[in-house]
Amino acid sequence: MAELTAEQVWRILAEVNDPEIPVVSVVDLGIIRAVEVRGDEVQVQMTPTFQGCPAVQVMRAEIENRLLEAGARSVQVTLVHSPPWTSQWISPQGREKLRSFGLAPPPVHQGNIEDALLTITACPYCGSQDTSLTNSFGSTLCRMIFVCNSCRQPFEQFKPL
Amino acid sequence: MDPELQSALAALLLAAGDDELILGHRNSEWCGQAPILEEDIAFANLALDEIAHAQAWYELHAGLVGKDPQTYPDRLVYFRAADDFRCLRLVELPRGDWAFSMLRQYFFDLYENIYLRELSASTYPPLAETAARLRKEEVYHLRHARAWIVRLGLGTDESHSRLQAALDALWPYAQQLFLPGPGESALSAAGIAPERSRVQQDWMEQAHALVQECELQMPAAGEPPASRREHISGFKVLIDELQSVARLDPEAVW
């Protein structure tokens, strides 16, 4: 079997989706920090979003399975915690996918979460800026709950981190 | 690292992990029982975050005592005797009513926001990195808990009096947060961990401001529990419950 190239590995990873937000891939989320291919061995460095994210092990196993299927002889997915993940690492394409999924993308920020939380969140359904936060916590660790005062649709936002 | 510093740091990390674990466990007791659905979701999130933070401290602890950071945290949580836990009585106390659980959460979150801010300047890089990472999540906790305290304090007569009762009961326990552990002064001298008296100063300022904002009466100072080796009377029951499933089949793979 032909050896994988780093580009092929990145393409395969772009098809491994977050089980909690199935429209975005691990690459869109910016959690893949490095890929190294040595012969038929592949090493992937991954940085989890929230410390308690229960999807990490699922994504890790999925990455290993996909790369083994694609011909790698051994795959090692290492969790790297430094530097910590930031929502700034979500790609522009990933942000657009979140919006189309009904999940408002996190506000762009410079590292201060308090400031980021002052940003107005637009409704991902109708685009209105007249929205209210109803809960700083949502159905997963990385989401909070809003309601749109224009179209009355409740929606979630990916938290700035 | 100097062996004495290393063992003091291992003890500090174990205590920090135990605080987060037991608080997370107590918070999880609200799952399905919080006053409104949104808050049920929020408090379950808080519980999960605290337990995940415990894991981060236990992993660092494992590295310092020569254990495997992958597997040792589970051993510490599920197979350790209740007497060997080093958590504060503040986090062990039964969950009480909503005001009690929320005020406890606020006191702990306020402490963590200040302590982790100081700890992110630690001269021991793994500690500084972990503190900076966890603090980003803690921002959400503190905002949430603080908003609830104001809501309860300035809400109805009943919510106000319940919050006052929680304050009277919790205040002395909260002061245990600022008692340094064994060998901790050497860690502070080496710039590895912050001086707790500095953390306490900031904490007091912010806690007092909130007490005033909520028009509460400040309770007498009280005497904090002196040692992390002494637990509340029902602590063994809590640990038995927490460990019951894992101990049914110690070799099970999850």
Concise overview:
The complex is a heterodimer of chains A (161) and B (254). Chain A has 161 residues and is an alpha/beta fold.
Largest interface: A-B, 22 and 24 residues
Strand order within the widest beta sheet of chain A: 6-9-8-7
Strand elements of chain B, count: 0
- Spell the H/E element sequence of chain B: HHHHHHHHHH
The domain tally of chain B reads 1
Tell me the name of the CATH class of the largest domain in chain A: Alpha Beta
Largest beta-sheet characterization of chain A = 4 strands, mixed
Low-confidence stretches of chain B: none
Q: What value does the Rg of chain B take, in angstroms?
A: 18 Å
Q: What's the tally of helices of chain A? A: 4
User: What percent of the residues of chain A sit in helical stretches (DSSP H or I)?
Assistant: 10-25%
In total, the number of domains of chain A comes to: 2
Q: What is CATH's topology name of chain B?
A: Ferritin
β-strand number of chain A:
9
Structural class of chain A: alpha/beta
Distance between the termini of chain B: 35 Å
Notes on the structure:
The complex is a heterodimer of chains A (161) and B (254). By secondary structure, chain A is of the alpha/beta class. Chain A folds into two domains: 6-79, Fe-S cluster assembly (FSCA) (GMP Synthetase, Chain A, domain 3, 2-Layer Sandwich), CATH 3.30.300; 102-158, no CATH class. Chain A has four helices and nine strands; from the N terminus they run αββββαβαβαβββ. In chain A, the strands form three sheets. A four-stranded mixed β-sheet of chain A has the order 6-9-8-7. Chain A has a three-stranded mixed β-sheet with strand order 3-4-5, with helices on one face. In chain A, strand 8 (143-148) and strand 9 form a beta hairpin. The longest helix of chain A has 14 residues, at 56-69. The relative contact order of chain A is 0.15. With 254 residues, chain B is an all-alpha fold. Chain B has one domain: Ferritin (Up-down Bundle). Chain B has helices at residues 3-28, 37-64, 72-78, 89-92, 98-119, 125-153, 157-174, 184-189, 196-213, 235-248. In chain B, helix 2 (37-64) packs antiparallel against helix 6 (125-153), helix 5 runs antiparallel to helix 6 (125-153) and helix 5 crosses helix 7 (157-174). Chain B is globular. At the A-B interface, loops of A face helix 2 and helix 6 of B.
